[in-house]
Amino acid sequence: MDKRLAKLLLHLYSKIGLQSGDQAINDFITLPAAKKEIAAMIGTTPETLSRKLNCFEENRIIEVCKRNIHIRNIRALNDIAEVGLDEVINNGVEAVCT
pLDDT (tens digit, 9 = 90+) per residue, 72-84? Predict the structure, then answer.
C-alpha cells in the first residue's frame, strides 16, 4: 500500500509540475477527490489511507493539511514508490510506520 500511495502522490506532483513549471509551487499538491475516493483508487480503506498519510508525515516525507499536501522529501517518496517504506526505513529514514 505504501508503494501505491507514493506513486499516486508522485503522479499528482508531476502533473502540477507540468502545469506550473515553478519548483516552489511544485512542492504542494491538492488531492483531487475525497480521501474515501483516493483510498478506493489505491485499493485500501479511508482509515488505512489516513494512517499512511500520518506515517509519511511523521517521517517528514509530506505535510498534510486537509486535502493539501506539501511534499517535503521527494527523494524518500521516490524510494518508497520503488522499494516500499520498510526498505526505505531500514536504509535511512528514522521512524517506523505500522
Answer: 999 999 999 998 8
Tell me how many degrees the CA angle 33-31-52 measures, rounded to the nearest 5.
105
Q: How many other C-beta atoms can be found within 10 angstroms of the C-beta atom of residue 39? A: 20
> Which tens digits make up the pLDDT trace of 5-31?
999 999 998 886 545 444 445 588 888
Handedness of CA 10, 15, 18, 21 (dihedral sign): negative
* Phi–psi pair at 18, nearest 5 degrees: -70, -30
With helix as H, strand as E and coil as C, how does the chain read? Answer: CHHHHHHHHHHHHHHHHHHHCCHHHHCEEECCCCHHHHHHHCCCCHHHHHHHHHHHHHCCCEEEECCEEEECCHHHHHHHHHHCHHHHHHCCCCCCCC
**Total Cβ atoms within 10 A of residue 27:** 17
Query: What percent of the chain lies above the pLDDT cut of 90?
Result: 55
